[in-house]
Write a structure and sequence with these properties.
Blueprint (H helix, E strand, L loop, with lengths): L2 E2 L19 E6 L2 H9 L8 E4 L7 E4 L1 H4 L9 H7 L4 E3 L3 H18 L3 E5 L2 E5 L9 H16 L3 E6 L2 H11 L3 E4 L5 H5 L12 H9 L5 H5 L3 H8 L1 H10 L15 E12 L2 H21 L2 E12 L4 E11 L2 H15 L6 E9 L2 E2 L11 H17 L18 H7 L12
Parallel strand pairs: 1-9, 3-5, 8-9
Antiparallel strand pairs: 2-7, 2-8, 3-4, 6-7, 10-13, 11-12, 11-13, 11-14
Helix pairs in contact: 4-5, 10-11, 12-13
């Protein structure tokens, strides 16, 4: 039975049809990876399931609500998850299956609404403004939700309000498999009783800092002068203050599928130096994978291109589990290069291309990523964002004097918790 919520601010039930002006829905597939695994294996239903690496050094990519009751959460080490929930069932996961179901849900939404944004592999925003002229927004989104569940077999929750922020928070409150509408004018009564950790932008470190100050709810946070939050958190403090007031004018960005991205280099002098070619590949992989992560995208197909001095051009590609990690992509690309470079001729041009792109943050590689590796990527990206892309690079292609000391750079980088492979 789907869980149902309603807000009763004055003793009466307020429906979304009371909302005037902008109306935005947020849909989120519940424990997406686990839900797909349950579809494939019905015996997992109702059990504590963890999707992620099976070794103790691996991490949790997703977990069922039954496992969450024991304190298991996304991005936690498998070792700790086993300690918290010894009887959990650990599944390796299959990104191909998850991508297939994500595309299925995307197609259902695209067929039924005029404007939607796919913000991750399992999250969507829909701008429903003006649709009330023909039909109740609540009825429309409820019917869409039931269609998604009927055609995909996956549980999904939604929030409905006047902006993306409130709708996203409402979805979190509605889960699992529930719905929640916040009428116009009720944004603050809805937000303010909630714990500060329910607010997007408030991670573990910011939450701990605010709680040390005695700020435990969003309502208390909203009462702090904006200038104080700005002094404390910089420009993020201004945005956090706005969000605590329930303000968010972020538009729903129409979803378009970027087909591919890549880069290529034509050498001034044709070369047969394999070490030089490897270092060039490493440089291109770092640049393009960083760009993937900046765009919140993952690639599922890699292509390597070679042009020899006789202008003969060859390519080779391979489909891979979705990722944006340098070490995964570089190994794949070097393997492809080894298979391509068999003529022992001088090389004029070398290139790489990523395709089968989907939205998503750095996707935990379900089998062999560790917490240390994920933290390293986050620290490196933070340094590059702050000081420029060229301050950190692999030793294979670094120029003398051009590299920032890694230890010093990492000390300057803000510490973050690893982002989950999906939202819950």
């Amino acid at each position: 039975m789907a869980k149902r919520h309603a807000i009763l601010p004055t003793g009466g039930i307020l429906m979304p049809s009371d909302v005037e002006g902008r109306t935005v829905a947020h849909l989120d597939l519940d424990s997406f990876f686990v839900s797909v695994e349950v579809l494939k294996n019905a015996s997992l239903k109702g059990k504590p399931v963890i999707v992620g690496g099976k070794s103790d050094r691996g991490v949790v990519a997703s977990c069922s609500y039954e496992a969450r009751r024991y304190g298991v959460r996304s991005a936690m080490s498998i070792k700790l998850a086993k300690r918290l929930c010894p009887h959990a069932i650990i599944v390796g996961g299959d990104m191909d299956d998850y991508s297939k179901y994500s595309r299925l849900v995307t197609d259902i939404i695209a067929d039924r609404v005029p404007l939607y944004e796919k913000s991750s592999i399992d999250e969507f925003y829909i701008d429903m403004s003006g649709m009330d002229r023909f039909f109740s927004s609540e009825k429309l989104i409820a019917e869409l939700r039931h269609t998604i569940m009927d055609e995909s077999g996956l549980p999904i929750s939604y929030g409905l309000s006047r902006n993306k922020l409130i709708s996203k928070v409402a979805t979190g409150e509605a889960k699992p498999c529930g719905t929640l509408a916040v009428p116009k004018g009720q944004e603050k009564p809805f937000l303010h009783p909630l714990a500060i950790e329910k607010m997007p932008m408030v991670g573990d470190k910011t939450g701990a800092l605010l709680r040390q100050m005695g700020v435990e709810t969003i309502g208390t946070l909203s009462g702090i002068p904006m200038i104080y939050l700005q002094n404390l958190l910089g420009k993020n403090g201004i945005e956090l203050w706005r969000r605590a007031q329930g303000l968010d004018d972020t538009p729903v960005v129409p979803y378009t599928e970027q087909k591919s991205m890549g880069t290529e280099t034509t050498f001034e002098s044709d070369t047969i130096d394999v070490s030089f070619l490897h270092s060039t590949l490493a440089r291109m992989v770092e640049q393009t994978s960083f760009e993937l992560r900046q765009q919140n995208r993952l690639t599922g197909c890699v292509t390597v291109k070679l042009r020899y001095s006789d202008f003969n051009t060859v390519t080779k590609q391979v489909v891979i589990p979705y990722t944006s990690a340098d070490h995964v992509l570089l190994k794949t690309i070097k393997d492809l290069f080894a298979k391509l470079y068999d003529k022992r001729l001088l090389v004029r041009l070398i290139g790489i291309r990523y395709s089968h792109l989907i939205p998503g943050n750095y996707q935990i590689h379900l089998w062999d990523d560790t917490e240390e590796m994920i933290n390293l990527y986050q620290a490196i990206d933070s340094v590059k964002n702050r000081f420029g892309e060229d301050v950190l690079m692999r030793g294979a292609h670094a120029k003398k004097g051009a590299v920032l000391d890694v230890r010093a750079a990492l000390k300057k980088a803000p510490s973050k918790s690893p982002p989950p492979g999906e939202t819950f």
